[in-house]
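Hey Z.,

So I finally got round to the zinc ion thing we talked about over coffee. Here's the setup:
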Amino acid sequence: MMKEYWQEELEVSSRSSLEKLQIERLNKTIEYAIQSPYYNKLFNKKGISPGSIKNIAQIQDLPFTTKQDLRNNFPYGFLTLPKKEIIRLHSSSGTTGNPTVIFHNRHDINSWANLMARSLFCAGVRDTDVFQNISGYGLFTGGLGFQYGIEALGCLSIPAGAGNSKRQIKLMQDYGTTVAHAIPSYLGRLYEVFEQENLDPKKNTQLHTLVIGAEPHTEEQRQRIEAMFGVKAYNSFGLSEMNGPGVAFECTYQSGLHIWEDAFYVEIIDPETLQPVPDGEYGELVMTTLDREAMPLIRYRTRDITRIIPGKCKCGRVHRRIDRITGRTDDMFIIKGCNVFPMQIEGVLLKIPEVGSDYLITLETVNDVDEMVVEVEVKPNWFSGDIRKLDQLTKQITTQIRDEVLAKPIVKLVEKGSIPRAEGKAVRVADKRNNGLK
Amino acid sequence: MAYEVSIFLENKIGHFERITQILKKNEINIRTMSINDTSNGWGILNLLVNNPQKAYKALEAEGVSVALKEIIALEMKDESGGLHDLLLKVAQAKVNFNNANGRIIQETKSAILILDVPDIADSQKKLMENGLQILDDEKIYGN
Ligand SMILES: [Zn+2]
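And the result:
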């Protein structure tokens, strides 16, 4: 019979056996963590000891770890083992303050490579594939993280690195690349180069699968990429604090990303109250490593906003699915007592064909009341000269945003080009309220 | 068929001027204009011009939200009570309109009333049945 899962016993077991494994591994993780200077001090103060976790809900008694904690204890404060045992580090650029650095021993690297292989297998990649990794190698985890996973899976790997589109295309043609990994925004540029060279990736390559990740993107962007290349594109999620790629991955049903719960304990919390939110509701993703020795992290606040997709996936895996990342807690604002993420508003607007995806949220105080003004550009080709249609459109957008974020906005239609375009990350929220944020 | 050029316009300094600038550059003459203002920070500018298709293309090319809107034009006497007499007949024909504006034609000492109606074909039929003459394009645009 054809192999359906990379590790059947771990992927399609039962929730109860998965939970048993989580308790076992959490205790082991605490055992490792307590050997690091940071957790040693913290756990002793709070009376946390290895073996104290009897049921998994007790994880909520453990303290959170933040990015600031990592920075404050740079570089070795979280290290559990002597440097002799450590074989690799990955680090963020650290443009603001200390970089975030993660250390791995041999066990960690093998475990990561296995998760990465499992992820790719789950998206339909097989050892017969030729895998071109269009990703920066070096301190960035997308290069080596994928590389080790591709090798563990057994594909022919092409460590192409990032950029140089003409060379990427040549590699694809010379070696018959069937799978490629890249960030979604790069694939648009790559396609343009295909066109300049009078080539069509659908006809002139053997690609059947793309893996996209490392930057937030919408379902619409994914579909555009799939149409351009005539392939399936699967969403990959990871963050360097949790190794890098291989944390959560889409299976061939493309209905959310399975997050590997034997390796990570997953919580979704309200970033304000720090209390767990029910499945299906958006909140901040909090993760605990369950299989990392050199640098375990307990209840790490990722600042990424997502939700657990309720229900079982058709593929049969017991690992729950998270939704695509809709933003970061840093972007969140509170208006009329509601937590709002700009990506929620963007999601509403993207579904309305009459408006463009450019928008601007201004928070301002009008007659002592805080208001959320949402400016939206009307698409010129939709405009019919009928004032009532525009009024209806304003009402429709107002209702749909209110239904999504629970706070009623003031919607203002504006001309195309009114909202300043930003290079790279667009500024979506301007806070002009008397009291500032919150 | 006669057309007005409808433009989505924010109530901001310089936005109207940008439109007239584009029209001037393309040598388009504005015959009449009206603005449907709203309290939402925007309005719709309706222009009767000598060449609606050309105006539409020029504005569209500049990224303006513009539409060609079919209108009905009726002739009226340029004398006191002329408008009243005409509107009475329009009402008798049971024709509703969203917006109206007029222009005077110097050489014939007459005036035209421009109606923006929800249903063009139906309104045209009713007006003609009530003995009102619908003007042809040339007379409306005044080329
Ligand atoms: Zn699945």
